[in-house]
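Researcher: Here's the sequence for the chain we discussed earlier.
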Amino acid sequence: MTASFRTAVVLFGPKGQGSFNESGLRGASQARAAGFDVDVHWIAPLSAQERAHDMLHLCDKTYDLIVAHGGQGDGPVALLAAQYPGQAFVVTQGSHQAANVARYEVLQEQSAFLAGVLAAHTTQTGAVGHFSGEKVPPGLRGRAAFANGLHAAGFAGHFATQFCGHQHRPDWARQCVSDMAQQTQIDTLFAMIDGGRPGVTAACRQHGIQQIGNVLDWVERDSQVFIASAICDSGAAIHAAIKDFAQSSLPLGGYRAFGLESPELVRLVYSPRVPSSAKAAVDGFAARILRGEIDTLQPYDGPEHPLPEVNATHDEVTPTS
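Model: Thanks. This is the structure I predict for it:
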């Protein structure tokens, strides 16, 4: 197969918002720079049916390959792949399996596990939080990995966790995190959020919470609030999938993953104020993950923090808890 094929990359959320989409856009741009014909499409609605409806025109044989970036793509791709069995799809960070769908994943759960180890070694109050938007499989796996990292490192304090239902509402995210802070006294928060990140960071700044980010290097962007960031360059999966399609090696019906063995894609970065003892503890667990001694995919079965009572309509957000 030559590079004459066309690829549609689908990003979910308001155009230009979010670090996860920033990573995806970068992956699409890298593929373009390598000479591939790539168009980027932004899909804003929340439900799988609405997303599938907005993606329907991509299946009219204009594109040889459709790449849906993120677990938000699972639902719409499941609907469309069944309707268009001859269309090749890729879902990054997703879980849907079908004969015409390839799954590509950069293993956020590995760096999320390490973030849990770090939180266990740096919390002063003994109360740690997790916060995310939509309750999609990658978010659930990341939450579980963070919780398991906490407990593997000996954490025995209070763990508060919440999915607010929306990845891209800063005001809503700020209210939810503020409520969590007031009710639980957390001093460390692992936030897996996209366009809502500014609201989370504002709440952390207001309440004196050290935040651990994800996907990108948030320490570099705001070292006062971020103690670390669980790097997961998920956009690299987009470029990898397009290259594999060009070489006729796309694993349709299968799966390809990238983890800590590729530190340019998956790692934990630290603020300068993280003590060397905490870094050493994280490094020890990272080595054990690479040796296959730790399964970062164990599920989380603990309680969740209830959503706060705020003035938000169903159109503004669809909370899940």
